[in-house]
Amino acid sequence: MFKKLIVWPLTVILIIAVAFVIHLLWFKPLFINHFFEKVFIEFAFDSPETLTQIRILKGTPLRFYHNDLDDLSQEQGDKLIARLQRDHQRLQSYSDKYLTKSQRLSKQVLADFMEMQIALYGEFQHHNYPVNQLFGVQNGYPEFMAVQHWVEDKKDAAAYISRLEKVGPQFDQVLEGLRIREAKGITPPTFVVDRVLVEMRGFVDKPANENILYTSFAEKLDAVDPELALDKDKWLTKAEQAIETDVYAAYGQLIAYFEELKPKTTSDHGVWKFPDGERYYNLKLKEATTTNLTADEIHNRGLAEVARIQAGILMILEGQGYDIDQGFAHAMQLLSDDPDQYYADTDQGREEILAEYRTILEEIDQQLAPSFALRHKSALEVRRIPEFREKTAPGAYYQQPSLDGSRPGMFFANLYDIKASPKWGMRTLAYHEGVPGHHLQKAIQSELTGLPTFRKLLGFTAYAEGWALYAERVAYEMGLQKNPLDNVGRLQAELFRAVRLVVDTGIHRKRWTRDQAIEYMQENTGMASSDVVVEIERYIVMPAQATAYKTGMDHILKLRRKAKKQLGDRFELRDFHDVILRNGDLPLNLLEVQVDDWIHETPK
Question: How do the domains of the chain map onto residue ranges?
Fold first, then answer.
């Protein structure tokens, strides 16, 4: 009788909970906060890889997704667009009259994001290169397995093997999309095909037990409980078999496709070559910058900023005794030729670079208080970019921590070419990717409370990259670049982003060739030639994205000047930074509204 009294209310509670979830997922929720979570849940549950990455279900029995990969089929893509259109209509049905200020902001953020995705992928979903030298399943899959997939027990180990065995169907879905693009006349430039073929052949041209999918799995097994470690050989044998059969076969099909495609490719590099390419590029610019700036406005802004920043760099170099009479490129070459500015081109030298990045970040972390009240909790790791993808990877990149805090933020540095890591540029790169740049901002975003889950994860490039570039300047203003050459590194990083405004619009609007863009960037940045080539090739496959950095930084600086002017002595830098950071990523127009509200609400 007593058991019945307990079981009955538990059954009722379970029925009510299930009914609530069904209503939440299949009907329009009554409250907008529930709608926000519904949108996020549907998106996340459609992406097993996202669920693994954010780890919100880690430690629960709900690990159904941990042995599966994302569905990349055309059918799934069409389904996602249809859902976006439906959810956008439902979002607009919630009246602002009944929403709090925070809810209205969340509604506007989600609406802006949805509208851009619908505009881009409803009509232009095939206007891209899903497999290229920077990203795609060919390098994203092994990195996901090595970095994101956790192994803590037998179920996790079995899930790892399952994901190795399921790579074939996923690659088939990618091939389906590539063939659709080819039929529409959307094929990558020849160099992209050459790069991905080199990358993929290198990936499969080694014994399975030397592949990163095997070695990283072995490391995961070594780090878990002894019971699982006892079965290590059994699990590794299964992994080796799956890599040799399923994984290498999938890569073989993708290699064969690109070998067949190569004779059909051309050296036309801009998206102007796509059907309706000009309108597509305009949309990409709007997505990247979250502004209505035109390609010509961005191009001209870049030219003006290049001239201004170069003058500042030359002034510093002249003060340090460098010959500037032969122009900017020659002066930067003199600095680049100085052997004292590099670590040894050895494994030990590369370890010293990583150690120096860690030292720089530890130093600034101790000095943030005067400029930042809002702080992050998540740790930051500095790692080398996996060697199998160093040749075509960017100079560095950042991965934000998981929502549950079990995985720290990660700053990945490219150490392939030692000349691309001069000592005078290291502080600036560490501040950009780490603190007070991406890690501080993204960790704060993932740790925000009282906001819908999507707000902790959604990204707007102009905001995030604009903040990271702005953070480089803040570190300088904090007095952390006392060596004048470190300030050259900061200015060169800003110059690099100004040059991006010129070359991105040059390639995709003004029809510059790849060589023209490389020549312009080489002459106007003083960067290592290996970095210049990688960067230009990046802009070709990621149109407009590179215009976001300088645009975002300039906008944040404009808002700071505005706040200083209107608040006068009441202006506090710590408070300004809190306003910028406390809502996570925002489109620039909505960020300006937050700053305006703060100005008006600051006591007189």
Answer: 1-30, 31-125, 130-267, 279-554
